[in-house]
Amino acid sequence: MAESSPTTNAPELSVTELSSALKRTIEDRFGYVRVRGEVSNYRGPHSSGHAYFSLKDQGARIDAVVWKGVFARLRVRPEEGMEVIATGKITTFPGKSAYQIVIEAMEPAGIGALMALLEARRVKLAAEGLFDAGRKQLLPYLPSVIGVVTSPTGAVIRDILHRLADRFPVHVLVWPVRVQGETSAAEVANAIAGFNALEPDGAIPRPDVLIIARGGGSLEDLWSFNEEIVARAAAESLIPLVSAIGHETDWTLIDHIADVRAPTPTAAAELSVPVRAELLANLADLDARRRGAILRVAERARASLRASARALPSGEAILAVPRQRLDRASAALAASARAGFDRRAIALERLSRRLVARSPQALLASAVARQKGAARSFARAVALDRERRREQLARVAARLTAALAARSRFDVQQLARTAQAQIRLRRALQGAITQRRARLAAAAQFLNAVSYRNVLKRGFALVRDGEGTPLRNAAAIGAGQPIRIEFADGEVTATAHGRARPDSINPLTKSPTASRPAKAAKREPSGGQGSLF
How far apart are CA 2 and CA 74, in angstroms? Predict the structure, then answer.
């Protein structure tokens, strides 16, 4: 067979050479560019420190990478759905025959369209109360049937079934749905409503728990679970619902509404059922503890019964202590009764003595005794005062005598002065005594002078009514009123007959009836007489 000849004279290039040429061409043509797009498929920095994600808009998408050193200097860190303006260099990655932008600077350009729509839906559903913690249901501890809404061909259902078989094998019902695409949201919502429509005792058992699961992906891949129809179907579900959408960093609207959110589908299976081996071990441990507790209780009861039997006293021993208490109580009662009678007798004696002390005879005797005591005290005080003064004079005389004896060496003039001082002292003492006697006599004379009895001696009389009240004027005496008239030598009684004529008595001349005071008292006194008080 003849060898075919080449149809062109173009040189042959290896794949590496072609990739390198393309790399140089792209880098030389574009160099540094500024690209505006929405951050997509961002999972945070890699373990190496570099960050890998994509920038997209309505018509295209470009891979992006931020090296570790640049990522640490970024003022704005990338976030899923954030619209940014990235500045960097366009290059190629020969290992994948793909081009990418190596970002060196980044600044925010606004929230992306999908994120804005997602935020609007989240605010709307939150305002309706679909995210409230009070609406969430508790998962059953040991469900008998678990319903799973996911793709039947993906790795998610295999992970869930494998994890359930390892922990606690239960009956699993799978409702196959598309987890991505235009019809995905409606299929998921219909699956949730279909599981809730099953009868508990029907041919197909109704699940006790629902698991909505999907693997990881970008925001666009998970968008079906952000649709309002799916969120409202999850909110209306009467079966407790566990959401396991994407990876741990992925959040969708159904995650906020679900009763429990699991970070991964495997974690959703773990949250739905307990570990069967652990339950069996706990049951065996509880059974062993129960048996041991029953044996210990029975043994303690036997020991307590034996101890009670040994400690149980005889009938005489039981009655001995109550008998002694009765005897002591009887003796104490008799002693208490005697003591009570004695206390009452003593109290009665005290009351009688107090009553005797409060009698009129006792009070009078006490007053007389106090008066006599006061008289004796006064006499003793006078005698003591007199004695004290004598002692003072004696001490003064003794001091003077001692002073004279001590000053015997003084001249005669000093002795004379001392004698004269003694004489003056005696004279002063006698003068003070004489002066006080004169004052006492003057006071007695003054008292005698102002006494109303001296006025009676001069011919006046004191008129009182029948009760002894002094009458100061004639107007106070009525006709027929009994009166008492006191003279200097005695008192007489009379009866008033009325007022006398003013000219019948002349205060400047002696009345013809002055020698008869009893009759004159019957007349009304004139205005010139005046009152004795």
Answer: 64
Contact partners, residue 98, CB within 8 Å, separation at least 6: 63, 92
Phi-psi region of 34 (alpha: psi -120 to 50; beta: other; left: phi over 0): beta
- Between 1.10.150.530, 2.60.40.1180, 1.20.1250.20, 2.40.50.140, what CATH number should domain 16-111 receive? 2.40.50.140
Rounded Cα distance between 381 and 514, Å, is 53
For 441-496, how does the pLDDT look when each residue is reduced to its tens digit (9 = 90+)? 888 888 877 777 778 877 888 888 878 888 888 877 888 888 888 888 888 888 88
**Per-residue pLDDT tens for 34-86?**
888 888 888 888 888 899 999 998 888 888 999 988 888 886 778 888 888 88
Reference 104, options 63, 71, 61, 62; nearest CA is: 71
Question: What does the alpha-carbon distance between residue 483 and residue 464 come to, in Å, rounded to a whole number?
Answer: 6
Q: Which two tokens stand for residue 525?
A: 């006194």
DSSP label at residue 470: B
Q: How many CA atoms lie within 13 A of 244 on its CB side?
A: 26
Q: How far is CA 235 from CA 147, 187, 196, 485, in A?
A: 17, 16, 12, 125
pLDDT in tens, 211-266: 999 887 777 778 888 888 999 999 999 999 999 888 777 788 888 889 999 988 88
pTM recorded for the entire structure: 0.41
Note whether 149 and 211 are within 8 A (CB).
Answer: yes
Please answer whether residues 506 and 479 qualify as being in contact, where contact means their C-beta atoms are separated by less than 8 angstroms: no
How would you list the strands of the sheet with 241-245, edge to edge? Answer: 171-176, 145-150, 209-214, 241-245, 260-261
Instruction: Please check the confidence at residue 387 and state whether its pLDDT lies above 50.
Output: yes
Torsions phi, psi of 484, nearest 5?
-125, 130
* φ/ψ (deg, to 5) at 113: -65, -45
Tokens of 529: 């007489």
**Tokens (6 digits) for 376:** 């004796």
List, as one string, the DSSP characters of 364-420.
HHHHHHHHHHHHHHHHHHHHHHHHHHHHHHHHHHHHHHHHHHHTTTS-HHHHHHHHH
CA distance 125 to 254: 11
- The Cα–Cα gap between 266 and 165 comes to 12
Q: Hey, which residues does 491 pair with through a beta bridge?
A: 486
List the one residue out of 20, 26, 15 whose CA is nearest residue 99: 26
Residue 69, C-beta contacts closer than 8 angstroms, at least 6 positions apart: none
Q: Answer whether CATH 3.40.50.261 is correct for domain 138-274.
A: yes
